């Protein structure tokens, strides 16, 4: 670009993002964003990844930041484009993922005329965002972008939405803004540490709930030391943004999805200590049953809020209870596991994953019903990171896998993906093919919304044909090998564990994406 030419707002936006370390943009642009698109063409340094649906774009930005430890940008088209991406922004909010969410909008002077795409864009963005702003002039765009990056990265992380009317992007007068200082991560108070220590010394049955960065290797080790020294139990929420797991790492159990199973598991607990986690709650309410999976009379204590330094809080608590030198549980040295044979079951898939998962794989799980054995059954798999659907809005799995693969080249991504939720964002496969991303998709094809059959029973309903038809996605059956092929991704079907193991080995050894339709 000729430096003598005045810079427009879009050019100052791109340059400011790059100056702030944001060098990846997941995009589905429209007319209002054309000046940003043109600026990306003129200014080198930004990797642009096209998604064919905004839910793919926002979910991919979530998966990218979970693995990269820094935000990507999105590029969405006006309020309706944002609306298409809201479900996975909700999931990103629940995961506390840093995302710089860029949304084009009507020109400032065009908006009062109520053109067809005019919407309450800021109103739609605000509930999923930690920070929302509409740029009002080209000269402010750079400063707005720098503030958005700072807000997204402020602990514990979140979605920062910057709305950009088209005229502030094409007008001259843009200024590149320097990065703002990172906001300090607050430490927990000495009182909070001492209160938690008193609870742990009381001898009462105590549960420590770990979430967020407390599930990384070092803080998790301190949590295990505390548990070993005090007899406390450790647990994490059902769904977590990222967990370090596998052979040689310390495991942590999860609150079960089923409310009845969760209440049974946590029966007798007298104290709950929260470390970056909310108080446990069942996924849904059921008639006549408590929404709390822990006893109603248990006391809840907060050691650290999500925005505080969780690792430092656990280290100080370990000191306070004399656990810094506590003997950690000896890591079990498992016997070598062979892939499962015969019929396809949840336990058999978990066994095969344990036997064949590549070293340092990234596992993305979007399966609750059939996948019930996957998490507990893979504690002795090769070291890996496990990413989950955090907000309950289905359709996150394939975009998360896409974004994680962009963020972590050289690591194989394995997506354990239910078929019903895969249909929400199957366009992700096209982007995986275009970018030649190393993703193995294990498509769990039971041809029904199996989890909803359980929910129907949970509310005491007696289903008839109409209800059951609403939960069935057969007639006609989805053909995932053909669907994948139509998106440019090779695939094959497995109906038994021997075939699955063969395909899984092959897929992980090759470059690029591959879909295994596992019929269950």
TrEMBL record:
* Superkingdom in the source lineage: Bacteria
Q: Which InterPro entries does this one have?
A: THDP-binding, Thiamin_PyroP_enz_TPP-bd_dom, TPP_enz, TPP_enzyme_TPP-bd
Give the Gene Ontology MF terms in alphabetical order: acetolactate synthase activity; benzoylformate decarboxylase activity; flavin adenine dinucleotide binding; thiamine pyrophosphate binding
Question: What Pfam families has UniProt attached to this entry?
Answer: TPP_enzyme_C (PF02775), TPP_enzyme_N (PF02776)
Q: From the UniProt record, give one GO term of the biological process aspect.
A: small molecule metabolic process
Q: Where is the Thiamine pyrophosphate enzyme N-terminal TPP-binding domain?
A: 7-112
* PANTHER family for the chain: ACETOLACTATE SYNTHASE LARGE SUBUNIT ILVX-RELATED, THIAMINE PYROPHOSPHATE ENZYMES
Which family is annotated? Belongs to the TPP enzyme family.
Stated name of the protein: Thiamine pyrophosphate-requiring enzyme Benzoylformate decarboxylase, Acetolactate synthase isozyme II large subunit
């Amino acid at each position: 670009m000729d430096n003598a030419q005045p810079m427009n707002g879009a050019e100052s936006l791109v340059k400011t993002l790059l100056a702030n370390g944001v060098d990846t943009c997941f995009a589905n642009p429209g007319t209002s964003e054309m000046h940003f698109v043109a600026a990306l063409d003129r200014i080198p340094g930004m990797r642009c990844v096209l998604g064919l649906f905004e839910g793919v774009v926002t979910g991919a930005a979530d998966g990218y930041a979970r693995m990269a430890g820094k935000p990507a940008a999105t590029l969405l088209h006006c309020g309706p484009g944002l609306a298409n991406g809201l479900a996975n922004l909700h999931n990103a909010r629940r995961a506390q993922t840093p995302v710089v969410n860029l949304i084009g909008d009507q020109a400032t002077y065009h908006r009062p005329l109520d053109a067809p795409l005019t919407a309450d864009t800021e109103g739609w963005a605000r509930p999923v965002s930690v920070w929302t702003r509409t740029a009002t002039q080209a000269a402010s765009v750079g400063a707005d972008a720098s503030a958005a990056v700072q807000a997204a990265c402020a602990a514990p992380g979140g979605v920062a939405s910057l709305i950009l009317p088209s005229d502030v992007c094409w007008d001259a007068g843009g200024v590149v803004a320097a990065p703002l200082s990172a906001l300090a991560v607050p430490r927990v108070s000495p009182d909070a540490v001492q209160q938690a220590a008193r609870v742990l010394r009381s001898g009462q049955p105590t549960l420590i709930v770990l979430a967020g960065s407390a599930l990384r290797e070092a803080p998790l080790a301190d949590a295990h030391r505390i548990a070993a020294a005090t007899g406390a139990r450790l647990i994490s929420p059902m769904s977590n943004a990222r967990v370090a797991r596998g052979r040689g790492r310390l495991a942590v159990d999860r609150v079960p999805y089923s409310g009845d199973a969760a209440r049974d598991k946590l029966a007798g607990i007298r104290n709950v200590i929260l470390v970056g986690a909310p108080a446990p709650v069942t996924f849904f309410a059921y008639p006549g049953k408590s929404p709390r999976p822990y006893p109603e009379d248990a006391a809840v204590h907060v050691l650290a809020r999500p925005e505080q330094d969780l690792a430092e809080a656990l280290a100080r608590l370990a000191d306070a209870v004399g656990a810094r030198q506590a003997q950690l549980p000896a890591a079990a040295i498992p016997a070598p596991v062979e892939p499962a044979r015969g019929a396809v079951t949840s336990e058999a898939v978990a066994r095969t994953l344990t036997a064949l998962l590549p070293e340092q794989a990234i596992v993305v799980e979007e399966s609750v019903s059939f996948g019930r054995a996957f998490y507990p059954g893979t504690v002795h798999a090769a070291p890996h990171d496990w990413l989950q659907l955090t907000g309950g809005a289905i359709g996150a799995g394939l975009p998360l896998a896409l974004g994680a693969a962009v963020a972590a080249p050289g690591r194989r991504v394995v997506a354990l993906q239910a078929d019903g939720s895969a249909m929400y964002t199957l366009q992700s496969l096209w982007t995986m093919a275009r970018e030649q991303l190393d993703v193995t998709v294990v498509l769990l094809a039971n041809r029904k919304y199996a989890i909803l059959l359980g929910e129907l029973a949970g509310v005491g309903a007696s289903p008839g044909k109409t209800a059951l038809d609403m939960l069935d996605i057969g007639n006609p059956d989805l053909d995932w090998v053909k669907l994948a092929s139509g998106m440019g991704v090779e695939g094959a079907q497995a109906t038994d564990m021997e075939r699955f193991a063969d395909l899984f080995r092959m897929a992980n050894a090759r470059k690029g994406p591959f879909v295994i339709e596992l019929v269950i």
